[in-house]
Design brief:
The protein is α/β, with parallel strands linked by helices. Helix content is 35%, strand content 11%.
Length: 231
Protein backbone atom coordinates (compact mmCIF):
# COMPACT_ATOMS: atom_id res chain seq x y z
CA UNK A 1 0.00 0.00 0.00
CA UNK A 2 1.49 3.33 -1.05
CA UNK A 3 2.01 6.11 1.48
CA UNK A 4 -0.04 9.29 1.42
CA UNK A 5 1.83 12.14 -0.19
CA UNK A 6 2.39 15.42 1.62
CA UNK A 7 3.95 18.72 0.62
CA UNK A 8 6.38 20.01 3.26
CA UNK A 9 7.54 23.63 3.14
CA UNK A 10 11.25 23.38 3.83
CA UNK A 11 13.45 26.41 4.49
CA UNK A 12 16.36 24.45 5.92
CA UNK A 13 15.85 25.91 9.39
CA UNK A 14 15.12 24.36 12.75
CA UNK A 15 11.34 24.42 12.51
CA UNK A 16 10.78 23.22 8.95
CA UNK A 17 13.35 20.44 9.38
CA UNK A 18 11.48 19.21 12.45
CA UNK A 19 8.20 19.38 10.57
CA UNK A 20 9.65 17.25 7.78
CA UNK A 21 10.71 14.62 10.33
CA UNK A 22 7.24 14.70 11.90
CA UNK A 23 5.54 14.21 8.53
CA UNK A 24 7.74 11.22 7.82
CA UNK A 25 7.10 9.84 11.32
CA UNK A 26 3.36 10.08 10.68
CA UNK A 27 3.76 7.86 7.63
CA UNK A 28 3.62 10.46 4.86
CA UNK A 29 5.74 10.41 1.73
CA UNK A 30 7.17 13.95 1.79
CA UNK A 31 7.63 16.24 -1.21
CA UNK A 32 9.78 19.16 -0.07
CA UNK A 33 9.23 22.69 -1.38
CA UNK A 34 11.74 25.50 -0.89
CA UNK A 35 11.99 29.03 -2.28
CA UNK A 36 14.71 31.27 -3.63
CA UNK A 37 12.71 34.44 -3.07
CA UNK A 38 15.41 37.08 -2.94
CA UNK A 39 16.22 36.47 0.72
CA UNK A 40 19.53 37.82 1.96
CA UNK A 41 20.16 34.50 3.72
CA UNK A 42 19.84 32.49 0.50
CA UNK A 43 22.50 30.15 1.91
CA UNK A 44 19.58 28.56 3.78
CA UNK A 45 18.76 26.75 0.53
CA UNK A 46 21.97 24.77 0.83
CA UNK A 47 20.77 23.70 4.26
CA UNK A 48 17.38 22.76 2.79
CA UNK A 49 19.09 20.60 0.18
CA UNK A 50 21.17 18.88 2.87
CA UNK A 51 18.11 18.21 4.99
CA UNK A 52 16.02 16.94 2.06
CA UNK A 53 18.77 14.51 1.09
CA UNK A 54 19.34 13.31 4.64
CA UNK A 55 15.65 12.70 5.26
CA UNK A 56 15.08 11.04 1.89
CA UNK A 57 12.22 13.07 0.42
CA UNK A 58 10.45 11.83 -2.69
CA UNK A 59 11.20 15.11 -4.48
CA UNK A 60 12.69 18.46 -3.57
CA UNK A 61 11.58 21.45 -5.62
CA UNK A 62 13.18 24.89 -5.29
CA UNK A 63 10.99 27.64 -6.75
CA UNK A 64 12.38 30.96 -7.93
CA UNK A 65 10.35 34.06 -7.10
CA UNK A 66 11.65 37.55 -6.45
CA UNK A 67 10.13 39.30 -3.46
CA UNK A 68 12.93 41.87 -3.60
CA UNK A 69 10.79 43.43 -6.32
CA UNK A 70 8.64 44.80 -3.51
CA UNK A 71 11.11 44.83 -0.62
CA UNK A 72 9.37 45.81 2.61
CA UNK A 73 11.43 43.50 4.80
CA UNK A 74 14.94 43.35 6.20
CA UNK A 75 15.19 39.94 4.54
CA UNK A 76 14.42 41.23 1.04
CA UNK A 77 15.97 44.71 1.05
CA UNK A 78 19.01 46.59 2.30
CA UNK A 79 17.32 47.29 5.64
CA UNK A 80 19.58 46.14 8.46
CA UNK A 81 18.60 42.96 10.28
CA UNK A 82 17.99 43.86 13.96
CA UNK A 83 20.45 42.35 16.44
CA UNK A 84 20.03 41.84 20.19
CA UNK A 85 22.10 40.55 23.08
CA UNK A 86 19.62 37.93 24.25
CA UNK A 87 16.15 36.55 23.59
CA UNK A 88 14.77 38.55 26.50
CA UNK A 89 15.18 41.68 24.40
CA UNK A 90 12.61 40.44 21.87
CA UNK A 91 9.06 41.75 21.97
CA UNK A 92 5.90 40.35 20.41
CA UNK A 93 4.15 43.69 20.75
CA UNK A 94 5.03 44.80 17.24
CA UNK A 95 5.62 43.11 13.90
CA UNK A 96 9.41 43.01 13.30
CA UNK A 97 11.12 44.29 10.16
CA UNK A 98 12.09 40.71 9.30
CA UNK A 99 8.45 40.03 8.44
CA UNK A 100 8.18 39.46 4.68
CA UNK A 101 4.84 40.77 3.38
CA UNK A 102 2.48 37.92 2.45
CA UNK A 103 5.30 35.37 2.42
CA UNK A 104 3.37 32.44 3.90
CA UNK A 105 0.38 33.20 1.69
CA UNK A 106 2.64 33.07 -1.36
CA UNK A 107 4.44 29.93 -0.20
CA UNK A 108 1.22 28.12 0.64
CA UNK A 109 -0.21 29.00 -2.77
CA UNK A 110 2.75 27.30 -4.45
CA UNK A 111 2.36 24.35 -2.08
CA UNK A 112 -1.31 24.14 -3.01
CA UNK A 113 -0.46 23.96 -6.71
CA UNK A 114 2.27 21.37 -6.08
CA UNK A 115 -0.17 19.29 -4.03
CA UNK A 116 -2.72 19.22 -6.84
CA UNK A 117 -0.11 18.14 -9.36
CA UNK A 118 1.29 15.24 -7.30
CA UNK A 119 -2.06 14.20 -5.85
CA UNK A 120 -1.43 15.23 -2.26
CA UNK A 121 -4.12 16.44 0.12
CA UNK A 122 -1.81 17.36 2.98
CA UNK A 123 0.54 20.32 3.40
CA UNK A 124 2.91 20.74 6.34
CA UNK A 125 4.24 24.14 7.41
CA UNK A 126 6.38 25.04 10.43
CA UNK A 127 4.52 28.13 11.65
CA UNK A 128 4.65 28.80 15.37
CA UNK A 129 2.40 31.11 17.36
CA UNK A 130 3.72 30.46 20.87
CA UNK A 131 7.33 31.61 20.85
CA UNK A 132 8.01 35.17 19.76
CA UNK A 133 7.68 35.99 16.11
CA UNK A 134 5.05 38.68 15.78
CA UNK A 135 4.26 37.49 12.26
CA UNK A 136 0.54 37.72 11.38
CA UNK A 137 0.76 34.77 8.98
CA UNK A 138 1.81 32.36 11.74
CA UNK A 139 -1.48 32.52 13.65
CA UNK A 140 -3.97 29.61 13.88
CA UNK A 141 -6.82 31.75 12.54
CA UNK A 142 -4.77 32.57 9.45
CA UNK A 143 -4.07 28.90 8.73
CA UNK A 144 -7.73 28.02 9.25
CA UNK A 145 -8.84 30.76 6.87
CA UNK A 146 -6.29 29.75 4.24
CA UNK A 147 -7.37 26.12 4.41
CA UNK A 148 -10.98 27.16 3.87
CA UNK A 149 -9.97 29.25 0.86
CA UNK A 150 -7.81 26.47 -0.58
CA UNK A 151 -10.71 24.05 -0.59
CA UNK A 152 -12.83 26.57 -2.47
CA UNK A 153 -10.13 27.48 -4.99
CA UNK A 154 -8.97 24.13 -6.37
CA UNK A 155 -10.36 21.43 -8.60
CA UNK A 156 -9.31 18.85 -6.03
CA UNK A 157 -11.21 20.66 -3.28
CA UNK A 158 -14.34 21.07 -5.37
CA UNK A 159 -14.24 17.39 -6.32
CA UNK A 160 -14.07 16.35 -2.68
CA UNK A 161 -10.32 15.80 -2.12
CA UNK A 162 -10.12 18.24 0.77
CA UNK A 163 -6.77 19.78 1.58
CA UNK A 164 -5.50 19.76 5.16
CA UNK A 165 -2.80 22.20 6.31
CA UNK A 166 -0.81 20.68 9.17
CA UNK A 167 0.88 22.97 11.70
CA UNK A 168 2.37 20.54 14.24
CA UNK A 169 4.63 23.18 15.84
CA UNK A 170 2.08 25.94 16.23
CA UNK A 171 1.77 25.65 20.02
CA UNK A 172 5.30 24.40 20.80
CA UNK A 173 8.13 26.33 22.41
CA UNK A 174 11.51 26.21 20.69
CA UNK A 175 12.66 23.84 23.45
CA UNK A 176 9.72 21.55 22.67
CA UNK A 177 10.67 21.62 19.00
CA UNK A 178 14.31 20.78 19.67
CA UNK A 179 13.29 17.97 22.02
CA UNK A 180 10.83 16.54 19.50
CA UNK A 181 13.29 16.65 16.62
CA UNK A 182 16.06 15.12 18.69
CA UNK A 183 13.79 12.24 19.64
CA UNK A 184 13.09 11.72 15.94
CA UNK A 185 16.80 11.63 15.14
CA UNK A 186 17.00 14.99 13.35
CA UNK A 187 20.55 16.09 12.56
CA UNK A 188 20.36 19.80 13.39
CA UNK A 189 23.95 20.35 12.26
CA UNK A 190 22.56 20.36 8.70
CA UNK A 191 20.22 23.28 9.40
CA UNK A 192 20.53 27.05 9.29
CA UNK A 193 18.21 29.45 11.12
CA UNK A 194 20.13 32.74 10.90
CA UNK A 195 18.73 35.77 9.08
CA UNK A 196 22.18 37.28 8.54
CA UNK A 197 24.86 34.58 8.15
CA UNK A 198 28.38 35.44 6.99
CA UNK A 199 29.96 34.34 3.72
CA UNK A 200 31.09 31.10 5.35
CA UNK A 201 27.55 30.23 6.37
CA UNK A 202 28.12 30.86 10.07
CA UNK A 203 25.16 32.15 12.05
CA UNK A 204 25.35 35.65 13.51
CA UNK A 205 24.07 34.63 16.96
CA UNK A 206 22.20 37.90 17.51
CA UNK A 207 19.26 38.11 15.11
CA UNK A 208 15.79 37.16 16.31
CA UNK A 209 15.94 33.71 14.76
CA UNK A 210 19.38 32.88 16.18
CA UNK A 211 18.43 34.00 19.68
CA UNK A 212 15.27 31.91 19.72
CA UNK A 213 17.18 28.91 18.44
CA UNK A 214 19.95 29.31 21.02
CA UNK A 215 17.42 29.62 23.83
CA UNK A 216 15.54 26.58 22.55
CA UNK A 217 18.63 24.38 22.65
CA UNK A 218 19.60 25.70 26.07
CA UNK A 219 16.16 25.09 27.56
CA UNK A 220 15.99 21.63 25.99
CA UNK A 221 19.39 20.77 27.48
CA UNK A 222 21.19 20.12 24.19
CA UNK A 223 24.16 21.73 22.47
CA UNK A 224 23.43 23.58 19.25
CA UNK A 225 25.65 21.92 16.61
CA UNK A 226 25.84 24.82 14.13
CA UNK A 227 28.73 27.31 13.93
CA UNK A 228 28.33 30.88 15.15
CA UNK A 229 30.40 33.94 14.36
CA UNK A 230 32.64 35.28 17.10
CA UNK A 231 30.82 37.76 19.34
Amino acid sequence: MSKRKAIVLLSGGLDSTTVLALAKNQGYEPYALSFRYGQRHVVELEAAKRVAKAQGVAQHVVCDIDLRTFGGSALTSETEVPKHDNAGDLSAEEIPVTYVPARNTIFLSFALAFAEVVGATDVFIGVNALDYSGYPDCRPEYIEAYETMANLATRAGVEGARLKIHTPLISMTKADIVQTGTELGVDYSLTLSCYDPDDEGRSCGHCDSCLLRIRGFQEAGFSDPVSYQAA
